Amino acid sequence: MTRAPAPLQPLSALQYRVGLAVVGRVGGDDALGRRSDTVDKPGPRWFTSTDPVWRVHDDAAMFSSGVTALLLQSLHPLAMAGVAGHSGYKSDPWGRLQRTSDYIGRTTFGTIDDAEAMIARVRSVHDRVRGKDFRGRPYRAGDPRLLEWVHVAEIWSFLAGHRAYGVDPLTPTEQDRYVEESGHAAAKLGVLDPPTTVAGLEAAIDSFRPELEVSPAAVETAHFLLEDPPLQWWARPAYGLLAAGGLAILQPWAAQMLGLRQPRGGRARGRIGVAAVRWGLAGVHGSRVPGPTE
Fold it and tell me: Looking at the whole model, is its pTM more than 0.70?
């Protein structure tokens, strides 16, 4: 006779509910199943669990640095116009977040076949996304220059978040490897010569500064992320900790452009928020991950 599993203890049950709520909000209702399909599926991979890109993208610090990335990315008016006009970030913000999460997951943790299929799908979408920004300047999502901005702003933010809040710090050499590894999918997506070192990443960010401008859509995005997130009242305090942590690590010049005051004690609040997310995720995620040739 098979013995029924023991019921979860109150603290474990709370941890599981917190983790399930976080995973479901970021990844969708079937997030656990899709994560298992991605991580446990046999087949060759670009990366293993010991590679810097896996360690950064699998860390709870991503929940704060994702806010940083969205704020920084919003400063390019052409990229922001594409997001505002085609992504549905206001009408379906969680759907957009879930699609982004799925892309990062498939291209970091998935098999090569699944990663390349995801990239092909996104390239197909980009081919159809075009329009004009708030000043009437034309853009197309597949423009290599815009793809580069989205990539370097994202990777800079994820690395900054991991430095501030990550549980498994990277050495300087590993940080360079993270930049190089994150450029693998970016190059296949259409980025020309993505940076391969932290110094190159910083130089790439600096090269874009003459092109950056605060558009009305960027201001709306900052308000949406920091002041009026699409959350119920009980979830807002926890999200506020993560958002404060994300704003705290944004470059001061970028915060100034957006008219944002970086919060006093923001990094401490970010550490608390990330630690809470990490605790919840530990209640729902196993630790086993496949090797590159399984």
Answer: yes
